[in-house]
Every structure is written in structure tokens, then in C-alpha cells.
Amino acid sequence: MFAVEIVKLGQSLPTTDAAPVIGKQLLRSAMSVAANYRAVGRSRSRAEFISKIGLVVEEADETVFWIEMLADAGITRKNDVEKLLAEANELLAIFAASQRTARSNRK
User: Model's pTM, two decimal places?
Assistant: First the structure.
């Protein structure tokens, strides 16, 4: 599960000044993806679905950003987060496609 892998990554980060800050932001955004996606499934209307999937897309994009930041800042090696980053981008693409479809079917 993606969220569990994010937790594991957060626990493995060094104790430098920046790592815990970025790690907490990553953890927050990734957990938000999981929680909000769960809420999407409980949407009571198409409008509510579109609104909630929009939150998921935003948080997934932020999660990608924080993973990239860890690697770009040299806190983790790119190779160490490569699979996780690929999964985050895949999830983002899926959620964004779902959002586009829901918006186009609004009529």
C-alpha cells in the first residue's frame, strides 16, 4: 500500500534540519491522499465526487513534489525513492483522469 511505504520512508529519513520538516509534509500529504480517496467512495452526488477527487489530485501532486524534494535536496538518493515516485505519479495520473472524466460527464 502506497501510504504504508510513505510511512516507512519517513521513518528512514536522517535527522538533519530539513529532513523531518520535508518528511512531515510528505507524510501529511500522502495520508491526505489516502483519507480523501476513501471519502471519494462515499460521495453522495456527482458534485461531491468532483470536489473530493479534486482534493485527492491536489494532495497527490503535493506528495510527488515532496518525494522529488527529498531526492533533489540530497536527503535521499534518487534510486531509493524511484519506485515510490513512479507509483505516486501513476496514482496522480489515475486520479486526474478520473477528475477529468467526472467533469466531462457532469452534463
Answer: 0.93
